[in-house]
Amino acid sequence: MARIARIGDDVTVQLGVWEKIAGLHGDFRFPVSAITAVEVDHDPLSCVRGMRAPGLHVPGRVKIGTWRRSGAKTFAVARRSTPAVRLDLSGQPYGRMVISVADAAATADSLR
Fold first, then answer.
1. How many domains does one find in the chain?
2. How far apart are CA 8 and CA 11, in angstroms?
3. Of 14, 17, 29, 111, which has the fewest CB atoms closer than 10 Å, so is most exposed?
4. pTM for the whole structure
5. Which domain of life is it from (predicted)?
């Protein structure tokens, strides 16, 4: 399962091996100052919209990878039964990240 951690002035998003394979992407690292909003989503699949390119989508269960919509890109590791942290970003390759984590509320609090 993916993990989000704040290390000093940076945030790291560490993906599991299968998430890296499914999403065709490695881990992420970006400054805390790039975060414009942090929210907890209890239905993360519904907030990931657009066209998948590249990634994995099992309808109603999981979305992993890049979703593109109206010029914006979202990276998702969203699972049906696991709340997610939604990060809105500026000045980064992805404008939004939706990452299902074990304790979404505590993770979101650590990033605020």
1. 1
2. 8
3. 17
4. 0.95
5. Bacteria
